[in-house]
Task: structure prediction
Amino acid sequence: MAVEDDVLDELRRLRSRLPQLTGSLAASVDGLVLAQDAPGTEPESLAAITAAALGVAQRMADLTARGDFRELLLRGADGYVATYTAGPSVVLTLLTDDRVNVGRLHLEGRRSGVRIGELVAARTAPGDTVRRPVPDPDPERPIGTLPVRAPRRPTSPAGTRARPQPETGG
Result:
């Protein structure tokens, strides 16, 4: 049995333990679907948005000195979206209706996240398709910006900056 099948079994058990659960998805941290039990959703889009939200949440946790990312909870008018870590390379996203007990959601989501993390760690070998997070090469650069180098003016031999000379036509 592949790791995807084991993870899907865990998602189905989670649905039986949490009746208000309307969908669940396990995805790699870079947005690839590992397993899903989310009827009525586009799993690839949900995985991609989860990866984007994860990136922002990780950055916010870093900037506010709150430690490593653990979970993210979004409350909408019609329910909740919760994302939990599931080991170093996988996240678990849960969709619920608005009647869910949030404490129970966290309890079951955290437990399933740990279980899925264990399944992935035990069943994946180096080189498998579940990708590991790539560290940000420049943690000081704000999210969504490209590295930019300001042009430098040439310096004069005396070490002071040379002033640009106006161009003459002719």
Notes: DSSP finds three helices and five strands in the chain.
